[in-house]
Each structure stands twice: as C-alpha cells, then as structure tokens.
Design goal:
The protein is of the alpha+beta class. The chain has helices spanning 32-40, 52-58, 60-69, 91-94, 96-103, 110-118, and strands spanning 14-18, 24-25, 45-49, 106-108. The longest helix has 10 residues, at 60-69.
Length: 119
Amino acid sequence: MQSQTVVCERNEHLVYRCIKCGCYWDTNGYNKEELKELILQNKIGVSSGYCPECLRGQAVSKIRKSQKQNGYPSCYLKAEESCDQTACCYRSSCLEEEVDKWRDLVVLRNSYIEDKEKS
C-alpha cells in the first residue's frame, strides 16, 4: 500500500490561532477584512499554538527552565527595555515592544467570532 503525500500550493495562505484565547493573527500582511471572511467560511489554513499574550501568562517557569537548559539566562519577562538575547525563541512574547507588533497582526478576536455566530 502506497501512502499519499498532501502537498500544499505555494500560494496557499495560512493564519495562526491561539489554542487558549482563540484569536487569529496573520504574518503576511493580507487585507484583514478579507481574511476575516475566509476564516469565518473555513476557507483558509489555520495553524494553532499560543499567542504571545497567552504564552506570557501560561508557562513562565517552564520557559525560564527551558532557557537555562538551552544555555540562555532564565530571564523571560524580566527585561525592562531591551534584551541582548536576539536568538532566544521566546523573544517575541517576552518584550513588550514585540508583543505590541504582534497585536497589530491580529485579524480576529474570539469575541468577534462568537458575536458573528449569534447573529
């Protein structure tokens, strides 16, 4: 029996959804209104994980432990203005300025979807 491999089209778009709060965000700069409709109609690929806001409140001690085990200082959410750990994979949810950049990418909040489903 031969297995089939599913190949995505190169131009297929993907958005991200938080598994905790349910918000959707886009990193490719597409029109937010068009993406809202595609999401609501289930016509777009979705990848799930934690958004930076939820990650900040979810696992601070686990993240600091992981930082230490991987040779970084266990400094998650301790930086006040800047951070010299540019290769740290938690940087996008650690620094407030990075989280602010992410907030600009949010396409939908869960409350919008719930309101849309009620109407």
